[in-house]
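User: Hi! I have a protein structure encoded as tokens and I'd like to know what sequence might fold into it. I'm fairly new to this, so please keep things simple.
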């Protein structure tokens, strides 16, 4: 059979509004490899991240084409794809809940919402009639730490401010006086707009038992559910208390960012302030609280209970746990098989602020490029006065990035053999980018042309000037994509 080929255009539009149109070339000999490459690399090459559903959608599309190619009905396949909406791939999926979240606080809200947004039928059970009661009765003022609000929590703040774009200053204004009516309106709106989410109020979990395929849960109403995954986000770990001691997961102490190594930060899934300390939660931290599909929040969750001062941190860990549990349900896999980069990309699709840079505003045009660059661990953030800074105006030294680039791009060893210096100039930097990114001179022309427009860099383009960290991160992310280099759950690069 001849090697038939075609091209498809897929509009990929994450729910945060960013869109991109991808041209996917398909051939009988290469569709499987291309599907795999898209799942791993598409996010950074084009500056967006494939969500769980979009990743599976691409694989579903290739599967559809595979059948058509083998049946020699290529034209039929193309016509079918033009008229059949892509969600058809999921039309037969059951809406039976795959994940149950128990609790009433902000962690329960973000865990349930993230799971549902990731395409997993989710059941949120609350033991009170009012959700998030800490904010529903009176106005409160939240912590005034460096602006690290992000993810689904920041969405709530922006809804209260009636803003369609994320802004740290606006978020701080809202937090100075959290109006309960505006807050509950924002929560109600988010819940109403979210598919795959069912909310049950005023119901306690009466019993929870492990079974061969997960957990059997009985509510006070005697309604019963069998689910593979459960998240106990209650303040007092009410579900955990119903289990025998030997079934409970082992809790690990939290790790302050100030003592974390670069490898650990590569696997971070959430960050935030608790009291006066900035903490980071890695994927390993989240999985340490999991046992047979049951996730429990770490001891800080019930230690601080309804203390609203640390809402941003509690919301972040809730969203991270929700995304992790959703990953297991969506891909029908086990914790040891979780792809760190896929999980991080999913959370960033929904606004997660993983790297806690206090000096990079969420409204920065290159916010997520800096996030991806930070997660690659090329240049460690600076730890100053209890905060974590990117220090984007600092100049980049050869010595600080050469060892890590050797791990990311083996070709870089050849480049550094012929180039030495103390600080990178734009001339040297572009030479390196083109060498490791397999690019041509079109890179120089594009950067000079887009210096003020798309890149929004200050000053004028000059190949003799030194490169700043900010510029280095943006350009390397755009043309060489270090973030796509796979890492294991310990943060070590995988060849």
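Assistant: Happy to help. Inverse folding works backwards from shape to sequence: for each of the 495 positions I chose a residue that suits the local structure. Here it is:
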């Amino acid at each position: 059979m001849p090697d038939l080929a075609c091209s498809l255009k897929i509009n990929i539009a994450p729910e945060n509004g960013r869109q991109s149109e991808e041209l996917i070339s398909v051939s009988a000999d290469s569709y499987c490899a291309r599907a795999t490459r898209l799942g791993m690399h598409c996010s950074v090459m084009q500056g967006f991240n494939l969500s769980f559903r979009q990743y599976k959608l691409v694989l579903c599309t290739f599967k559809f084409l595979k059948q058509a190619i083998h049946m020699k009905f290529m034209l039929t396949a193309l016509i079918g794809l033009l008229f059949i909406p892509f969600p058809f791939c999921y039309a037969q999926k059951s809406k039976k809940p795959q994940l149950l979240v128990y609790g009433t606080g902000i962690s329960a809200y973000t865990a349930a919402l993230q799971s549902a947004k990731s395409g997993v039928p989710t059941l949120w059970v609350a033991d009170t009639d009012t959700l998030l009661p800490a904010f529903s009765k009176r106005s409160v003022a939240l912590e005034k730490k460096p602006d690290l609000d992000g993810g689904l929590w920041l969405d709530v703040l922006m809804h209260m401010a009636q803003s369609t774009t994320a802004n740290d200053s606006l978020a701080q204004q809202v937090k100075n006086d959290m109006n309960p009516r505006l807050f509950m309106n924002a929560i109600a709106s988010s819940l109403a707009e979210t598919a795959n989410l069912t909310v049950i109020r005023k119901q306690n979990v009466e019993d929870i038992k492990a079974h061969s395929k997960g957990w059997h849960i009985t509510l006070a109403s005697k309604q019963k559910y069998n689910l593979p995954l459960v998240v106990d986000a209650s303040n007092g770990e009410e579900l955990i208390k119903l289990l025998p001691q030997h079934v409970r997961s082992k809790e690990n102490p939290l790790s302050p960012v100030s003592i974390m190594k670069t490898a650990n930060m590569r696997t971070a899934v959430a960050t935030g302030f608790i009291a006066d300390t900035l903490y980071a939660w890695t994927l390993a931290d989240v999985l340490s609280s999991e046992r047979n599909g049951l996730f429990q929040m770490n001891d800080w969750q019930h230690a601080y209970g309804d203390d609203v001062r640390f809402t941003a941190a509690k919301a972040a860990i809730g969203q991270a746990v929700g995304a992790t549990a959703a990953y297991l349900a969506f891909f029908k896999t086990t914790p040891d098989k979780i792809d760190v980069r896929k999980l991080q990309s999913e959370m960033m699709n929904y606004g997660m602020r993983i790297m806690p840079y206090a000096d990079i505003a969420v409204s920065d045009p290159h916010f997520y490029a800096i996030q991806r660059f930070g997660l690659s661990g090329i240049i460690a953030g600076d730890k100053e006065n209890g905060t974590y800074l990117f220090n984007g105006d600092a100049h980049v030294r050869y010595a600080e990035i050469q060892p890590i680039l050797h791990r990311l791009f083996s070709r870089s060893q050849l480049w550094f053999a012929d180039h030495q210096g103390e600080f990178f100039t734009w001339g040297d930097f572009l030479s390196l980018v083109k060498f490791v990114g397999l690019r041509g001179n079109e890179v120089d022309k594009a950067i000079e042309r887009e210096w003020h427009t798309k890149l929004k860099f200050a000053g004028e383009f000059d190949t003799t000037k030194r490169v700043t960290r900010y510029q280095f991160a943006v350009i390397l992310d755009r043309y060489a994509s270090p973030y796509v280099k796979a890492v294991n759950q310990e943060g070590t690069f995988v060849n």
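A useful reference point when you look it over: The first strand starts at residue 5 and ends at 12. Feel free to ask if any position seems puzzling.
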